[in-house]
Amino acid sequence: MTVLMMFAACYGVWQLTMLASATRTVRMPLLILGVVTGLYGAGMLALGLQLAYTRGVAALTGDSVAEIVRTASYTTDPLIEELAKVAPFALLALLHRKVRAQWGLTDFLLLGAASGAGFALVEQLLRHAGEAANAARAGRSRAGRSCGASASSRSGACPTC
Q1: Which pTM was predicted?
Q2: Quick one: which of 17, 99, 138, 147 has the fewest CB in 10 Å?
Q3: 66-108: per-residue pLDDT in tens?
Q4: How far is CA 91 from CA 76, 84, 85, 156, in A?
């Protein structure tokens, strides 16, 4: 499943690259690096900033972390995520004059889309991370039954074993 999700993210970036092929100057390997930047850089930066914000506000106000997380999910977290996605490329454009002179708006748009694709990938992977443990737990509960009876039978025991 993870490999398919990675393929889908890179395929979306490839489609945008083909649409913008007449005006872009960045090459595909750099765009794949943009996906990796979104996956590892922006994803972890946003996660760290969101954890620091929610825990800090909870410590200052005395409210529960769950309440702060619920409120932050529609107030500050989207802003933090967008800033984390654009930060590497904004920093690159501000610090390197050659990049600023060579890249056009299309190049920054493609790199932003690549970073967003990597960030979406890390969001989906983190969202579904707990499902693997649930699947393993369900597999262990069925593995002990030799006849294949489900664990949801009335008595909880296999009627034929």
Answers
A1: 0.73
A2: 147
A3: 999 999 999 999 999 999 988 888 888 888 877 777 888 888 8
A4: 22, 11, 11, 60
